[in-house]
Prior knowledge:
Chain A is an alpha/beta fold. Chain A has helices at residues 2-35, 56-72, 83-93, 110-116, 124-127, 144-151, 183-188, 197-210, 225-235, 254-268, 279-287, 301-304, 345-355, 358-366, 374-378, 380-385, 389-396, 410-427, 431-448; strands at 47-53, 75-81, 103-107, 152-153, 166-167, 170-182, 215-218, 291-297, 316-320, 331-337. Chain B is built from twelve helices and two strands; from the N terminus they run H-E-E-H-H-H-H-H-H-H-H-H-H-H. At the A-B interface, helix 3, helix 4 and helix 18 of A face loops of B.
Amino acid sequence: MVSACDALFREESMKTIVRTVALAAGLLAGVATGAFAGPYDAHKGKTLVVNFPAHPHYNAVMKVLPEFTKETGIKVEVDQLEYLKMREKQTLELTKAKGDYDLIAYVVFSKADYVFADQLENLARFFMNPLLADPAYDAADIIPGYMQNIGVAGGDKGYLAGPTGSLFGIPFGAETSILGYRTDIFSKHKLKVPETYDEMLDLACKIPKLEPGMGGLASRAASGQHAAHAYLLHLAPLGGRVFDSQWNPIINNEAGIKAAQALKTIVDCGPEGAKTFGFAEAGAAFLQGKTAMFLDSTVFAGQVDDPSKSKIAGKVGWAMHPKGVRHGSQTGGFGIAIPKNAKNKDAAFLLMQWLTSKKADKLVALQGGNPIRFSTHADAEVNAKFPYMKTFGEALKHADPDWRPIIPPWGKINNDLGTTMSKIITENADIKQSMDGLAARTKATMKEAGYETFK
Amino acid sequence: MQAANTRRLTPYLFLAPSLTVLGFALLYPVGYMVYASFLNWNPSQHVSQAEWVGLRNYTFLLSDPSFRESLGVTLKFAAIVVVLEMILGVGLALLLDRKLKGMTLLRTLFILPMMIAPIVVGLMWRYLYHPTVGPLNRMLTRLGMEPVPWLSDANWALVSIIIADIWQWTPFIFILALAALQSLPRSAMEAARIDGATGWQQIWHIKLPLMLPVLIVTCLLRLIDAFKVLEVVLVLTNGGPGLSTEILSLRIARTASEFRELGKAAAMSNLLLAVLMILTLAMFAYSKFTEVRAARLRAAMQDES
């Protein structure tokens, strides 16, 4: 009887042990599954709608996007538009209660308009969320000049970083200025690659004498945005700014006038027709071998060694934007942000984080896009394919986020600056008088926009 | 009494739906534009968030030298192109209004430019005007002449745009003038010829007075179009050098999209609309007068024949 009871007890104990072990194993498996759930699992199967510009960088991104879907299970639908059209469409989209876009690319000067109108998500809450933020993201590797110029708002001057600033976007498709030069022409005449503005201006006018029919340096100069951009490119390295810290226009000071003179000299010593050049024409003049130097955006570099587009393939060297009183390569291009009216904000952040990660930055760079990270610029594989990338990385150490103001009335001031410069270039208008007039009109525009409220 | 009233109202009842739709489609956008011109409104704001500023946009424009310069350029451009296109178009119609071999083909070829999209016309002329590879300057250089700074000189830039516009739109005047010519009573021409009128007298005293009502409407249509020209200017000069070719429609587009000042852009559009309305009313009044005169002339000719 005892042994029967004992046997029964042992059998029951055995069952209990088996049940307990099974339960524990089940629990452990459950916990383990939870602990190892990917950050993308909650969003698998979702479709994000993004708005990108038709731009070489974003064309490269299109080739990399399938990798994101493969890795995360999140689908991406891209509405790619010509960039001015993209801006127009975004202006309407962002005012809607529920928008169609989960992620948008924006051109840098839209930052002021969108943030001021409270249409972009502050990214702090996403980077604070452990379910979304990747600890290996390494934001410090992203070029600070780009981050401050394109991503941050609310700090110094309202559009820069500073104690009161926040992050609203991440640079993506950003670019800086760089000097391209013809290695064959420079070695033929034993010319030194210019490191300072004086050297560059001297060479710009010396080359047409050494190589008749060839211009010194290709620059934009067409009335409006092109002439304004070309002028600002020289203003910062020569020590100038458009405004002082109190929003007084100082564009007519010594540095401002020197920058205008520099642009006029460059255009006067430039190739035939330089006075009407936009970015495309200036680039074409260099690619067709009509100038010995080119100083403008890095986005151009991809075409130089393509024999189908360039007559100077294999004959171009790259150097940093020359120094005036300081180094000051430009910062600009595009960033990506999450609209306030987006439907899938968390998933959009995951895409944004993935696209700007070290891995994707390199993938996009290898497809011909513009990297935003120091590590990508220094990467051996990227440099093997694009040997100029290391020089670009060096130039970006001096990227100036404040070379151009990013404030709502800038469109109007920029246009006035562009037409004023065009008059100086084409009509030989007196530089001092023109810049004084521009400063007075800028002051009136700033007053109308409320920038003198605290004066 | 009731039957009479019903009869009187019936046509209005039939007209009411289309008039309502037309009125809404026509007046609502214009009314909205007038309302917008009293606002300080940027595109990032909903219209309800915009600040009411009364007439401030209009007073600003009247004191804005850039706006005045744009208005001046537009008036100069419109006046020159319309006068030259009218002279050339009517002249060519008078010249080609005859039965010759290959005339149909020639007429068809002649109207081709106006069928091309303005943006393409701009790109084509941009190439023609190119300082180094452009055929125009290459031809001038071959002839031993100095190349012309077509687009980089403030005076030449406006001339270049005028040439491109004349090239594209003279055929429009030509085709309407030719249609008007061909609808004239042939018997009147024959009678004039029998009476010994010279070719020039026939043109001056018979053809042109009879064509005048059509020519006025043609001129009005071209004038309205010339005031609104945009694409060719945008592609050729983008308003430059300086502001030398910044016509009003380009200024309006810039004010709305680049400067993001929708209120001021609406005020500019309204001023442009007012100028065009005044011109239209004046030309319609003159058209009425010429129609009466042409009818009298026709009647006199029929009596004579």
